[in-house]
Amino acid sequence: MENQMSISDLQRNQINGQLSIGVPRESVEKFMKDDAENIVGREFNKNTANLKAALTAFDAASETLFEASDRMHAQADSLNSRAKASVARAKDMAAQMTDAMNRITKMLGGDFEQRLVQLERLADAMERLSELQAKGQLAGVISALQK
Length: 147
Prior knowledge:
mainly alpha; 0% strand; 4 helices
């Protein structure tokens, strides 16, 4: 009987020794290794370029986001300070109104209806004085009252 080998045994023998076309195993391994390194190198270079582009885009987007965040914080700080100033002015005005009401109460006494009538008269007088001031006649009225 002839020594019959399976196809996989023949292939194994060819790889372990010399291929059927006469190329030594070491040459095939070196060729495959070099080819693999070239393929990996090309892909690595492509991926490196893609990664650099992605990092550049990410840095630009991050910078834009941080700038927008800084602007938003500055606007929030400005709004906060303006709100505090408005609240302070409102408190001052409320205190002034309270003082004015206390002075009116001292002048008019405890009768609410009488106070209301007096307040209406006071408001009417203030409007008339404002009109006189707009016409430029208030100084004359004040000087006449001082005599």
